[in-house]
Amino acid sequence: MAFVSGISVGTKAFLGTAKATRTPTGVAAGRRSTVMMAMSKAVPFLEQPKNCVGLPASAEFDPLGFSDVIPIKFLQEAEIKHCRICMLAAVGFLVQEIFTFGGTYFPKMAPVEAHDYYMKTGGMSQILMFIAGFEFLSCAAVYQTMLGKREPGYFGFDPLGLGKDRAAYEKFQVNEIKNGRLAMIGVGGFIHQYWATNQTVLDQLTNFHALSNPEAGVKSALDALVTLRHAF
């Protein structure tokens, strides 16, 4: 009897403990739900990249988690720099189709073909030297950014005074990043479209024709990639 009653008491104690640790309901459950992991706006099935929250033009898109291992200010600086380069490149693609200086050194040709031409004649080496010089000069600015003394991408270049008002400055800051991202995609599209169709951008807009031989288009693109690889 003593053994049985001891089991009974222990069982009651165990059941009581289990009852006390059951999942709370009502208000307590509501409080618990608020601590659920936030999800990314751009990729709703992935966890929200915490270091991207609140940044200008942030869509919380970081599926590979770069912002968890690389300082976010460095990533911002790199993105803004590439945005500006590609916005200039997108304009350059279109201008070069309309106007060139002519002569032996500036012949009329498709922008994509111009890359290979200037690799052979030395023009691309000159551009590389200029870019390397600018990159070296910008190291001090990047260092200041990493110390938190400078906003990523800020060089104080505003000759028209568009950013004197803080609200306007933040608006143009977002616009620059969004247009830059579009330009990065656009320039890639310009290049691959030429490889596939052998038509420049304006030529295809005014004289569009679908690929009559898709296999040939794919082969042309692959040949271009091989040529580009050998160029480097």
Automatic annotation (TrEMBL):
Entry GO terms, CC: chloroplast; membrane
**Pfam families recorded for this chain?**
Chloroa_b-bind
Instruction: Tell me the GO BP annotations in alphabetical order.
Output: photosynthesis, light harvesting
Using the record, list the residue span of the signal peptide; answer none if the entry has no such feature.
none
The cellular location(s) given in this protein's UniProt record come to:
Plastid, Chloroplast
Enumerate the residues binding chlorophyll b 3: E176
Q: Which residues cross the membrane?
A: 85-106, 126-143
> Record's InterPro entries?
Chloro_AB-bd_pln, Chloroa_b-bind
Q: What is this protein called?
A: Chlorophyll a-b binding protein, chloroplastic
- Supply the source organism for this entry: Rhodosorus marinus
